[in-house]
Amino acid sequence: MTIDKSWTTIRRRGSSNEFWNGLQHFLQMAKPFVNDRGFIKCPCRRCLNNASHQLEDLESHIFRNGFMFGYNQWIHQGEPATANAGTTVAGPSGGIHERDEMFDVLDDIISEDADEDAVGGPSSNEQYDDLFAALRSELYPGVSFFSSLNFLVKLMHLKVLNKWTNKSFDELLKLLKLAFPKIDLVESHYEAKKLMTKMGLGYSSIHVCKNDCALFWNENSLKDTCPVCSESRWKLQSGKRSGKNVPHKVLRYFPVGPRLKRLFATSKTAKLMRWHSTGKSKDNDVMRHPVDGKSWQEFDKRHPQFAGDVRNVRLGLAADGFNPFGNMSLSYSMWPVVLTTYNLPPWICMKAEYLMLSLLIPGPQSPGKDMDVFLRPLIDELEELWVHGLDTRDAAYENGVFRMRAALLWTVNDFPARSSLSGWSGQGYRACPTCNEDTPSMRVIGKTAYFGHRRFLPTNHHWRSNLQFDGRTERKRPPRRFNTTDILEQLRRVKTGIPGKHPNYGGVKRKRGDDELNWRKKSIFYELPYWADIELKHNLDVMHIEKNVCDSLLGTLLADPHKSKDTDNARRDFAKLGIRHELHLFEDGNKLMKPAADYTFSEANRRKFCRFIRSVKFPDGFASNLSKNVAQNDS
């Protein structure tokens, strides 16, 4: 006997007699198969057959949350496993389709909303009607294995992977419509994007003052002029606003909470979100994941309630500027702010598909000291996720819903971006953020130099007594460590500046007082309740440091006139400091002579080095072909 299951796809459950009658028939069929305590697995979109309830609770669950999608053979409620092996679901439109993989995707999305409904009250979920209509629709008459929605999702994925323009996508849709007149497909990229946004994970467009003074957001959302510099929010033509309001700048904000919830929506990723609690290194001397580091462990000690639930999320933030136009002659700097989830194992957390874009800061100038203006929406949400959390369905856990909280552990940036985020200037005599006010530095010809590195060596190291470094022995100990109280006291003395780049307001250069040290501002991150206690707040991107050090080192060894640090001014500095007399410049007649240094290659050794680099072989995909960077004459 064929069981009518078409009622399971009805969206308007409250006003449908067909759904109610189908639900009663289902309960009657399941009644003989309850266990000895009167419980049976619940196939609602929240429980997904992972939890068991009594029949009266089963009725309310299914009516409130809906029947789970893709569950076509009711083996947990008494339907024989051999019966209706090819059972299909008849949709409200009367079309019959085989199981589509998009059922699982929509099931995850609907389950998230079902959890919110359970907490905040019932919801009709009518926003998904268009998605289910596309899911029930055949792509082409007779093609039952490919729904219109499935095809559109795959087509949009190809667009992203291959960087198709919107215009080319529209042209492709027109060609498909022309070649296959009966194909059920949207008319344009605009319609496709409008449909895709209903699947969640969209973004908010926030207008920005042209001078980066403020966001037109929250209390400023209805204003037409900047609350700081009074500049117009809109672009003007001949001093007048054009017919359509066009903002000067738009900040794209991608909310973090829904993206974190999506990680727990499928059992596979939900299990991986616990890896940090089970995958710790058992060797105290080995660090293969941030969970093995001191900063993570100290954070857990200070916040035991947060650390008590391993599903709470640890995040890292990275930001840097890039030119989106790929044209280096055009000066434009756009700044993406990306979050990574450290709950995941190390071989996954840095993959592109698990990185979350949270902000896209517009150009043409880098935000600089005004970075905090753009970070405001993200910081507000991070504070909300820490204080109140977010009800989240855990697909890998029987209890279903838990209160997910999140914390930002640190940032990862190059040195200039670190200055924008932390508030400590990376220029001047106190540029080192670790040494702080104890930074050893001096002025040399054309720049500021930082010395005193021997103080980090053991006290009995023979280099400490070597006079060739700066003509003196080094007896100082490593620089002191500044604790949280010291840093907060320094920040208390920092004066609050005016944001923005308007020449009459935030753009006016302000001379820092001696008591402000190198602080330009108190970073917005300190608004997070836990930020002041984090031991390692800002990490430097090793890639940039390695490249710069390697370039300088090789350039000096090879005596490259463009990249060597052994310049004429460096030799003049030797003379000024009274060290390395054998390397001082001297005059020979009318010529200024530069003695060869023992730390540079001779011509013969330079050729040997180049021949070695030419001969090095790496496995495929491990490194580029270095031999291409060696001149044919090995010079």
Q: How would you describe this protein?
A:
- This protein is an alpha+beta fold and 635 residues long.
- It has 19 helices and 20 strands.
- Strands 6-5-9-12-11-10-15-18 form an eight-stranded mixed β-sheet.
- A hairpin with a 7-residue loop joins strand 13 (390-393) and strand 14.
- The chain starts with 16 loop residues before the first helix and ends in a 20-residue tail after the last helix.
- Mean pLDDT is 84; it is low at 83-99 and 117-125.
| Low-pLDDT residue intervals, each spanning 5 or more residues | 83-99, 117-125
Sheet with most strands: 8 strands, mixed
The N- to C-terminal Cα distance equals 85 Å
> In terms of structural class, how would the helical and strand content be classed?
alpha+beta
How much helicity do the residues have? 25-40%
- Portion of residues in beta strands equals 5-15%
User: What is the number of beta strands?
Assistant: 20
Widest sheet, order of strands: 6-5-9-12-11-10-15-18
State Rg.
32 Å
The count of helical stretches stands at 19
Q: Overall 3D geometry?
A: elongated
Can you give the mean pLDDT?
A: 84
